[in-house]
């Protein structure tokens, strides 16, 4: 008997040891990521490898029946036949996806849907590889029931990176608890062409401001631990120089020199990569004749070898196919796939750029096997680092609690308040008195929830959004009569009720006129395969939507469209004091109102709490301190009109000056601030230089307020042409009434360097001018300092 027992025990032990030995290394959570990647890669077929690089459109991959969700037949087919590894925009809802509040997913169902997709994928692919899900997250997760923050141009108007990092962390949490792993954002394109349709998605025209906002977003998205359950991978967009297309045409060709590329367009991306960004998306455009999606210099030499990027790159939607159909640098899909992956483009956003074409390219010896393995390993590495092989599922009850919770809604209001720019306040018309008895609220954007939210926004229940009209009513209470008249549409000129608006203004003590633009997509608009709108000239359209901004809606002029200017002129003519509130996605022609209207607020697209935030500013419960991140031109004929153009200075035109109407950095306050005692202390050592700049800022008014102290620099004489002034540092500070603060900034070699004639980053000996003030045009104090010796800056990494 003992013999049989011993035999049984030995058999059990042997079986256990055999099972342990047979368990794949890549499934061992104690093994290193590199060991797991190598082991898994060695087990994969060509088709399985290519499948991991395909990012398919996700909203087609689930089916919803009441409160139940499951994998769709299309998803099952994609898993079986294409071995897919990633999905994009699974939870997206908008007119393009045809997902509505009824057919889309609330946060709980979203978490259940991603769980169902993960379960099916893992159980039905040979190696049990989990999915990685990417979502649009520029100003909130683009899904039903999430918090909607101001768009990026408003975020940068806060000049408060710490606040934006908090916002990004909230967005990441809301996306991750629903099952997402990648957040698309931030957009780091410089917006120096306001006719371009996507200005609202950017942080404006300046590389320093863009860089700091980008760093804030990356840190907020990714946190310190990708396995935290509340962080997502940040995907930087669009690499690179996408925001300055000729003629303002979205995705069009751009013209830039090598030096300008390095000094202006690349620094925000470099800063975000150095902050740890783990994904980069290529741009649709070409640079010097080479498409960004097949540009080996950008994707391999610069991004990886010089900057040390160790994440994965992904195409913009359809941009690999665009190498054939748009740029015509490849004759066949297989040639396009080979061009892209050999250049260093790892993943395909579309599912048709690689797929069969890449398999054909590999089999035809157009793509070495090690190049394919390199791309696949970069994707798998992040799946392991996120812990998806160990636990790919989320808890739907957490989604119910953490998506659009009260703290996030309050944060949306704070970001919106800090983003509002007071452009003009003649005779201190603002803030308004809450004791006013009759207020007229007029305009096409006064009570339109979608016009307030910007592009990349999901459908919203009306109860989630506070419009300007609602915010004003809540602020003043029942004792004040608030009358509302729309007046006209944004673009439609066929109908208006301007006469009714005039009557309301005549009967009011003040008229708040809410004008601007719209990025609100509707179900009547046609969309391209990339998601950009198919735009028709006004005369060709059967119906005229409000949308005049947002992806695809490029402009030839920057004038207020429709009858908005006529509406404003008619209201101003009544003699009733007028405040204009602008809700829009790009700079517009404000010349007439800047001359005739005493008070103007620019709120960009302020998000779901925009109405409350605007009312907080209108009635003085919040003292505005937003600053423009982009110059507002007087005329399209001035373009480009960004503040840091290279010398020589522009001269005036016959019809107008060369200066913008409102400059970069401009913004007023209900408080008044004085600058004094500018001091610069420098020190030099072997290979280093430092300048400490101090300035006193005093609030000379009776109101507490924020001031954005801006430090600009000029290299007085340089071997290559440089700007007359370039923002280097800034700080948003809160100063109590009558209080004085000393602000210190530290400049180093990277702040002083330029790319010289030998294409070396150098600090050249000579005199520099420090300028401190409240905007690029409102310089309060200047001082000079001298650098004695030349310093090469190898750490620039370029």
From TrEMBL:
The Swiss-Prot or TrEMBL record describes its family as follows: Belongs to the glycosyl hydrolase 3 family.
Signal peptide region: 1-19
Q: Please give the superkingdom of this protein's source.
A: Bacteria
Q: Which InterPro entries match?
A: Cellulose_Degrad_GH3, Fn3-like, GH, Glyco_hydro_3_AS, Glyco_hydro_3_C, Glyco_hydro_3_C_sf, Glyco_hydro_3_N, Glyco_hydro_3_N_sf
Spell out the protein name for this chain.
Beta-glucosidase
Q: What Pfam families does this protein map onto?
A: Fn3-like (PF14310), Glyco_hydro_3 (PF00933), Glyco_hydro_3_C (PF01915)
Q: Recorded GO terms, molecular function?
A: beta-glucosidase activity
Gene Ontology BP, a term:
glucan catabolic process
Q: Which UniProt keywords apply?
A: Glycosidase, Hydrolase, Signal
Q: Which residues form the Fibronectin type III-like domain?
A: 707-776
């Amino acid at each position: 008997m003992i013999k049989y027992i011993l035999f049984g025990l030995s058999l059990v032990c042997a079986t256990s040891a055999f099972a342990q030995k047979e368990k794949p290394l890549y499934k061992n959570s104690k093994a290193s990521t590199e060991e797991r990647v190598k082991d898994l890669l060695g087990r994969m077929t060509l088709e399985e490898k290519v499948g991991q690089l395909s990012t398919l459109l996700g909203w087609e991959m689930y089916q919803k029946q009441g409160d139940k969700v499951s994998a769709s037949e299309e998803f099952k087919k994609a898993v079986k036949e294409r071995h897919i590894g990633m999905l994009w925009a699974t939870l997206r809802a908008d007119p393009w996806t045809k997902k509505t509040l009824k057919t889309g997913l609330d946060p709980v169902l979203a978490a259940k849907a991603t769980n169902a997709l993960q379960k099916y994928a893992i159980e039905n692919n040979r190696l049990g590889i989990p999915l990685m899900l990417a979502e649009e997250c520029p100003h909130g997760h683009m899904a039903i029931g999430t918090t909607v923050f101001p768009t990026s141009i408003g975020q940068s108007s806060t000049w408060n990176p710490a606040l934006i990092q908090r916002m990004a962390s909230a967005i990441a949490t809301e996306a991750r608890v629903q099952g997402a792993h990648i957040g698309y954002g931030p957009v780091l394109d410089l917006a120096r062409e306001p006719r371009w349709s996507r200005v609202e998605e950017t942080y404006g025209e300046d590389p320093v401001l863009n860089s700091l906002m980008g760093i804030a977003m990356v840190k907020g998205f990714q946190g310190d631990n990708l396995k935290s359950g509340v962080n997502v991978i940040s995907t930087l967009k669009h690499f690179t120089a996408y925001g300055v297309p000729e003629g303002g045409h979205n995705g069009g060709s751009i013209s830039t020199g090598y030096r300008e590329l390095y000094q202006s367009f690349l620094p925000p991306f470099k800063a975000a990569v150095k902050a740890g960004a783990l994904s980069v998306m290529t741009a649709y455009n070409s640079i010097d004749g080479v498409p960004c999606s097949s540009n080996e210099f950008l994707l391999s030499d610069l991004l990886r070898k010089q900057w040390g990027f160790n994440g994965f790159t992904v195409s913009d939607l359809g941009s690999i196919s665009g190498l054939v159909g748009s740029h015509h640098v490849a004759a066949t899909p297989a040639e396009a796939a080979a061009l892209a992956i050999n250049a260093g483009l790892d993943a395909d956003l579309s599912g048709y750029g690689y797929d069969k074409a890449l398999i054909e390219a590999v089999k035809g010896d157009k793509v070495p096997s090690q190049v394919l393995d390199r791309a696949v390993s970069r994707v798998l590495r992040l799946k392991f680092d996120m812990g998806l092989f160990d636990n790919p599922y989320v808890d739907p009850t957490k989604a119910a609690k953490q998506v659009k919770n009260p703290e996030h809604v309050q944060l949306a209001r704070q970001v919106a308040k800090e983003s509002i720019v007071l452009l003009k306040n003649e005779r201190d018309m603002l803030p308004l008195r809450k004791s006013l008895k009759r207020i007229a609220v007029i305009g096409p954007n006064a009570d339109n929830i979608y016009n307030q939210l910007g592009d990349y926004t999901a459908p919203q229940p009306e109860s989630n959004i506070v419009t300007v009209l609602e915010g004003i009513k809540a602020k003043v209470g029942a004792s004040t009569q608030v009358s509302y008249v729309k007046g006209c549409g944004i673009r439609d000129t066929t109908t208006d009720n301007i006469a009714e608006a005039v009557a309301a203004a005549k009967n009011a003590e003040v008229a708040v006129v809410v004008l601007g633009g719209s990025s609100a997509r509707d179900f009547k608009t046609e969309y391209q395969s990339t998601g950009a709108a198919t735009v028709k000239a006004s005369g060709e359209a059967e119906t005229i939507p409000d949308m005049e901004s947002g992806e695809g809606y490029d402009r030839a002029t920057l004038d207020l469209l429709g009858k908005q200017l006529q509406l404003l002129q008619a209201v101003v003519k009544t003699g009733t004091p007028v405040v204009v509130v602008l809700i829009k996605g790009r700079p517009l022609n404000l010349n007439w109102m800047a001359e005739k209207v005493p008070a103007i607020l620019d709120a960009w697209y302020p998000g779901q709490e925009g109405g409350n935030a605007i009312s907080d500013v209108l009635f003085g419960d919040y003292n505005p301190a937003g600053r423009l991140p982009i110059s507002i031109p007087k005329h399209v004929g001035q373009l480009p009109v960004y503040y840091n153009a290279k010398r020589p200075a522009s001269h005036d035109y016959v019809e107008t000056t060369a200066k913008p109407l409102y400059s970069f950095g401009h913004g007023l306050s209900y408080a008044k601030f004085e600058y004094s005692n500018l001091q610069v202390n420098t020190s030099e050592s072997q290979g280093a230089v430092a300048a400490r700049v101090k300035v006193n800022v005093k609030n000379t008014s009776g109101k507490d307020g924020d001031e954005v102290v801006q430090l600009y620099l000029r290299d007085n004489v340089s071997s290559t042409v440089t700007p007359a002034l370039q923002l280097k540092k800034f700080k948003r500070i809160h100063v109590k009434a009558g209080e004085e603060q000393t602000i210190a900034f530290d400049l180093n070699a990277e702040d002083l360097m330029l790319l010289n004639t030998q294409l070396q980053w150098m600090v050249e000996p000579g005199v520099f001018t420090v300028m401190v003030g409240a905007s690029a045009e409102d310089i309060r104090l200047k001082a000079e300092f001298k650098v004695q010796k030349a310093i090469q800056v190898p750490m620039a990494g370029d």
